[in-house]
Design a protein that fits this description.
Rossmann fold, alpha/beta, 255 residues
Length: 255
Protein backbone atom coordinates (compact mmCIF):
# COMPACT_ATOMS: atom_id res chain seq x y z
CA UNK A 1 0.00 0.00 0.00
CA UNK A 2 1.41 3.39 -0.98
CA UNK A 3 2.09 6.07 1.61
CA UNK A 4 -0.56 8.81 1.88
CA UNK A 5 0.39 11.98 0.03
CA UNK A 6 0.64 15.43 1.66
CA UNK A 7 -2.59 16.33 -0.13
CA UNK A 8 -4.32 13.35 1.45
CA UNK A 9 -3.33 14.52 4.92
CA UNK A 10 -4.45 18.07 4.16
CA UNK A 11 -7.95 16.88 3.24
CA UNK A 12 -7.99 14.25 5.99
CA UNK A 13 -7.35 16.84 8.69
CA UNK A 14 -9.79 19.24 7.07
CA UNK A 15 -12.42 16.57 7.69
CA UNK A 16 -11.33 15.21 11.07
CA UNK A 17 -10.33 18.40 12.86
CA UNK A 18 -13.85 19.74 12.43
CA UNK A 19 -15.53 16.76 14.13
CA UNK A 20 -16.67 16.74 17.78
CA UNK A 21 -14.43 13.73 18.31
CA UNK A 22 -11.97 11.72 16.22
CA UNK A 23 -13.22 8.23 17.01
CA UNK A 24 -16.19 6.28 18.39
CA UNK A 25 -17.61 7.32 21.76
CA UNK A 26 -20.22 9.55 23.35
CA UNK A 27 -21.11 11.15 26.65
CA UNK A 28 -23.31 8.25 27.81
CA UNK A 29 -20.50 5.71 27.34
CA UNK A 30 -18.05 8.09 28.97
CA UNK A 31 -20.29 8.41 32.03
CA UNK A 32 -20.76 4.63 32.22
CA UNK A 33 -17.00 4.03 32.14
CA UNK A 34 -16.36 6.76 34.72
CA UNK A 35 -18.95 5.20 37.04
CA UNK A 36 -17.03 1.91 36.87
CA UNK A 37 -13.92 3.64 38.24
CA UNK A 38 -15.28 4.07 41.77
CA UNK A 39 -13.21 5.41 44.64
CA UNK A 40 -11.44 8.25 42.84
CA UNK A 41 -10.26 11.19 44.96
CA UNK A 42 -12.72 14.11 45.12
CA UNK A 43 -10.53 16.20 42.78
CA UNK A 44 -8.38 13.70 40.86
CA UNK A 45 -5.31 14.52 38.80
CA UNK A 46 -6.23 13.32 35.31
CA UNK A 47 -4.19 12.64 32.17
CA UNK A 48 -6.07 12.47 28.84
CA UNK A 49 -3.80 10.68 26.35
CA UNK A 50 -4.41 11.20 22.63
CA UNK A 51 -7.10 13.78 23.37
CA UNK A 52 -7.67 15.00 19.79
CA UNK A 53 -9.83 18.14 19.81
CA UNK A 54 -10.98 17.22 23.31
CA UNK A 55 -14.50 15.78 23.12
CA UNK A 56 -13.81 13.50 26.08
CA UNK A 57 -11.62 16.14 27.76
CA UNK A 58 -14.68 18.34 28.10
CA UNK A 59 -16.59 15.40 29.60
CA UNK A 60 -13.75 14.91 32.10
CA UNK A 61 -14.06 18.55 33.12
CA UNK A 62 -17.85 18.37 33.36
CA UNK A 63 -18.15 15.05 35.20
CA UNK A 64 -15.19 15.31 37.57
CA UNK A 65 -13.83 18.20 39.61
CA UNK A 66 -10.24 17.27 38.84
CA UNK A 67 -7.35 18.96 37.08
CA UNK A 68 -6.69 17.60 33.59
CA UNK A 69 -3.58 17.45 31.41
CA UNK A 70 -4.72 16.72 27.83
CA UNK A 71 -2.02 15.53 25.42
CA UNK A 72 -2.05 15.08 21.65
CA UNK A 73 0.72 15.13 19.05
CA UNK A 74 -1.33 17.09 16.49
CA UNK A 75 -0.85 20.78 17.25
CA UNK A 76 -3.97 22.06 15.39
CA UNK A 77 -6.17 19.75 17.48
CA UNK A 78 -4.60 21.08 20.66
CA UNK A 79 -5.24 24.58 19.31
CA UNK A 80 -8.93 23.80 18.96
CA UNK A 81 -9.02 22.35 22.46
CA UNK A 82 -7.33 25.45 23.89
CA UNK A 83 -10.01 27.61 22.27
CA UNK A 84 -12.75 25.40 23.76
CA UNK A 85 -11.10 25.54 27.19
CA UNK A 86 -11.01 29.33 27.09
CA UNK A 87 -14.58 29.64 25.83
CA UNK A 88 -15.80 27.41 28.69
CA UNK A 89 -13.74 29.15 31.36
CA UNK A 90 -11.72 26.01 32.16
CA UNK A 91 -8.21 27.48 31.97
CA UNK A 92 -7.57 26.78 35.68
CA UNK A 93 -8.42 23.09 35.36
CA UNK A 94 -7.50 21.93 31.83
CA UNK A 95 -3.97 22.15 30.41
CA UNK A 96 -3.76 21.21 26.70
CA UNK A 97 -0.28 20.01 25.70
CA UNK A 98 1.27 19.15 22.34
CA UNK A 99 3.25 16.01 23.05
CA UNK A 100 4.13 12.45 22.11
CA UNK A 101 2.60 9.70 24.23
CA UNK A 102 5.83 7.71 23.98
CA UNK A 103 7.89 10.54 25.47
CA UNK A 104 5.73 12.41 27.94
CA UNK A 105 7.27 15.12 30.08
CA UNK A 106 5.22 14.22 33.16
CA UNK A 107 6.57 13.10 36.55
CA UNK A 108 6.01 9.47 37.55
CA UNK A 109 3.19 8.49 39.91
CA UNK A 110 1.49 11.88 39.49
CA UNK A 111 -2.00 10.95 38.24
CA UNK A 112 -5.07 9.36 39.80
CA UNK A 113 -6.79 8.68 36.47
CA UNK A 114 -5.51 8.18 32.92
CA UNK A 115 -8.14 8.35 30.18
CA UNK A 116 -7.43 7.38 26.58
CA UNK A 117 -10.04 6.79 23.88
CA UNK A 118 -8.82 5.03 20.74
CA UNK A 119 -5.16 6.00 21.15
CA UNK A 120 -3.16 3.48 23.21
CA UNK A 121 -2.92 1.05 20.29
CA UNK A 122 -0.47 3.48 18.66
CA UNK A 123 2.10 2.44 21.27
CA UNK A 124 1.13 -1.20 21.40
CA UNK A 125 -1.03 -2.20 24.35
CA UNK A 126 1.68 -3.93 26.39
CA UNK A 127 3.99 -0.90 26.14
CA UNK A 128 1.09 1.49 26.82
CA UNK A 129 0.14 -0.38 29.99
CA UNK A 130 3.69 -0.11 31.25
CA UNK A 131 3.80 3.60 30.49
CA UNK A 132 0.49 4.25 32.24
CA UNK A 133 1.47 2.16 35.25
CA UNK A 134 4.48 4.40 35.77
CA UNK A 135 2.42 7.60 35.54
CA UNK A 136 -0.34 6.49 37.91
CA UNK A 137 -0.27 6.59 41.67
CA UNK A 138 -0.90 3.27 43.47
CA UNK A 139 -4.61 2.62 43.27
CA UNK A 140 -4.96 4.84 40.19
CA UNK A 141 -7.36 4.03 37.36
CA UNK A 142 -6.68 3.56 33.65
CA UNK A 143 -9.67 3.85 31.31
CA UNK A 144 -9.28 3.27 27.57
CA UNK A 145 -11.08 2.09 24.46
CA UNK A 146 -9.64 -0.36 21.98
CA UNK A 147 -10.85 -1.73 18.65
CA UNK A 148 -11.61 -5.47 18.79
CA UNK A 149 -12.81 -8.16 16.43
CA UNK A 150 -16.26 -9.62 17.10
CA UNK A 151 -16.28 -12.34 14.42
CA UNK A 152 -13.76 -14.39 12.49
CA UNK A 153 -13.16 -14.11 8.74
CA UNK A 154 -14.10 -10.46 8.16
CA UNK A 155 -14.72 -9.37 4.56
CA UNK A 156 -11.52 -8.40 2.72
CA UNK A 157 -12.30 -4.67 2.77
CA UNK A 158 -12.77 -4.76 6.55
CA UNK A 159 -9.61 -6.75 7.19
CA UNK A 160 -7.56 -4.52 4.88
CA UNK A 161 -8.86 -1.39 6.58
CA UNK A 162 -7.92 -2.51 10.08
CA UNK A 163 -4.68 -4.21 9.02
CA UNK A 164 -3.51 -0.88 7.59
CA UNK A 165 -4.01 0.92 10.90
CA UNK A 166 -4.05 -1.77 13.59
CA UNK A 167 -2.48 -5.05 12.40
CA UNK A 168 -2.27 -6.39 15.97
CA UNK A 169 -5.99 -6.00 16.66
CA UNK A 170 -7.51 -8.94 18.56
CA UNK A 171 -10.66 -9.94 20.37
CA UNK A 172 -11.76 -8.82 23.84
CA UNK A 173 -10.23 -11.99 25.28
CA UNK A 174 -6.86 -11.08 23.77
CA UNK A 175 -6.95 -7.62 25.37
CA UNK A 176 -7.91 -9.14 28.72
CA UNK A 177 -5.04 -11.61 28.41
CA UNK A 178 -2.57 -8.77 27.82
CA UNK A 179 -3.98 -6.91 30.83
CA UNK A 180 -3.63 -10.12 32.86
CA UNK A 181 0.13 -10.07 32.21
CA UNK A 182 0.38 -6.47 33.41
CA UNK A 183 0.29 -4.83 36.84
CA UNK A 184 -3.37 -3.87 36.42
CA UNK A 185 -6.60 -5.59 37.34
CA UNK A 186 -9.88 -5.22 35.45
CA UNK A 187 -12.66 -3.29 37.19
CA UNK A 188 -15.03 -3.64 34.24
CA UNK A 189 -15.44 -3.47 30.48
CA UNK A 190 -18.26 -3.04 27.96
CA UNK A 191 -18.86 -2.72 24.22
CA UNK A 192 -19.74 0.67 22.77
CA UNK A 193 -23.24 0.66 21.21
CA UNK A 194 -23.67 1.56 17.56
CA UNK A 195 -24.93 5.09 18.32
CA UNK A 196 -21.52 5.82 19.84
CA UNK A 197 -20.08 5.46 16.33
CA UNK A 198 -22.63 7.77 14.73
CA UNK A 199 -23.74 10.56 17.09
CA UNK A 200 -20.49 12.52 17.36
CA UNK A 201 -18.32 10.77 14.77
CA UNK A 202 -19.67 9.28 11.55
CA UNK A 203 -22.78 11.46 11.18
CA UNK A 204 -20.84 14.75 11.46
CA UNK A 205 -18.10 13.19 9.30
CA UNK A 206 -20.52 12.52 6.47
CA UNK A 207 -21.95 16.04 6.75
CA UNK A 208 -18.43 17.49 6.63
CA UNK A 209 -17.49 15.36 3.60
CA UNK A 210 -20.49 16.68 1.68
CA UNK A 211 -19.55 20.27 2.61
CA UNK A 212 -16.06 19.72 1.27
CA UNK A 213 -17.35 18.08 -1.92
CA UNK A 214 -18.94 21.44 -2.66
CA UNK A 215 -15.79 23.35 -1.81
CA UNK A 216 -13.64 21.08 -4.00
CA UNK A 217 -16.16 20.40 -6.77
CA UNK A 218 -13.56 21.23 -9.46
CA UNK A 219 -10.64 19.46 -7.74
CA UNK A 220 -10.50 15.80 -8.75
CA UNK A 221 -7.64 14.96 -6.39
CA UNK A 222 -9.48 16.34 -3.35
CA UNK A 223 -12.70 14.59 -4.39
CA UNK A 224 -10.83 11.28 -4.66
CA UNK A 225 -9.51 11.73 -1.11
CA UNK A 226 -13.02 12.52 0.16
CA UNK A 227 -14.31 9.38 -1.57
CA UNK A 228 -11.61 7.39 0.22
CA UNK A 229 -12.49 8.85 3.63
CA UNK A 230 -16.20 8.26 3.00
CA UNK A 231 -15.54 4.52 2.67
CA UNK A 232 -15.13 4.25 6.45
CA UNK A 233 -18.72 5.05 7.54
CA UNK A 234 -20.01 3.13 4.51
CA UNK A 235 -18.05 0.06 5.61
CA UNK A 236 -19.44 0.43 9.12
CA UNK A 237 -23.01 0.39 7.82
CA UNK A 238 -22.34 -2.85 5.98
CA UNK A 239 -20.06 -4.76 8.34
CA UNK A 240 -20.23 -3.39 11.89
CA UNK A 241 -21.09 -6.85 13.20
CA UNK A 242 -17.47 -7.89 12.59
CA UNK A 243 -15.78 -5.35 14.86
CA UNK A 244 -16.41 -3.06 17.83
CA UNK A 245 -14.85 -0.68 20.30
CA UNK A 246 -14.57 -1.85 23.89
CA UNK A 247 -14.20 0.31 27.00
CA UNK A 248 -11.80 -1.12 29.61
CA UNK A 249 -11.55 0.20 33.19
CA UNK A 250 -8.42 -0.91 35.09
CA UNK A 251 -7.02 -0.58 38.58
CA UNK A 252 -3.30 -0.04 39.13
CA UNK A 253 -2.01 -2.41 41.79
CA UNK A 254 -0.37 -0.89 44.86
CA UNK A 255 3.31 -1.47 45.49
Amino acid sequence: MSEPTPRFWQIFFEVFESLPRQGPGNRACFAKALALCGGLPPSPMVLDLGCGVGGQTVHLAELTSGSIVAVDSHAPSIGRLRAAVISRGLEQRVIPVVGDMAGLDQPPASFDLIWSEGALYNLGLEKALGLCHGLLRPGGRLVFTDAVWRKDNPPPEVKASFDADYPGMGRVADVLATIGRSRFSVMGHFTLPDEAWWDDFYTPMEIRIEELRGKYSADSEALAVLDQIAQEPTMHRRHSDYYAYEFFVLLRAGE
